[in-house]
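Lab notebook page, bench 4
Experiment: in silico fold of construct C2
Operator: M.H.
Input chain length: 146 residues
Purpose: comparison with the prior construct
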Amino acid sequence: MMASEKGFSMAEALIVLAGFLAISTASLAFTIPLYETAKKEAFFNVLKADLYYSHLYAISHQREVTFNIVRDSNYYYSHERFDMPLVTNRRYPKEINITKGSMPLSFKFLLDGNVNMFGSFFIYVNEEKYKMTIQIGKGRFYVAAE
């Protein structure tokens, strides 16, 4: 090999490639939990937005809006009446399990923004448990980790 040639040998290129593969494999181990956390946060953000939208729809249209969670199908929706288009309509990931607590998985937002019942239900995301509480008066709600 002449001293005037420039470039890398095959061994040097393989060493660099092996280092790159090791770093990318290690970073992949960190992205999986990050993806799960992002998926969970996205679910809660969308659920809250759909609840707020159903609540505001009831007030602005002066009609009762029923919010239903169909846990067997990983699906929730809200509607005015069964013969009208849905107000919200969403599927959620199979890793998320919603169960009733002190209230059933169906409630109504009334014309003035109040809810017809209050209480809580539970949301399980993998090993984590969250409690969603619908408060009495004006349809307020919050989510707390258990």
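Observations: The mean pLDDT is 90. The CA atoms of residues 36 and 54 lie 27 Å apart.
Next step: discuss at group meeting.
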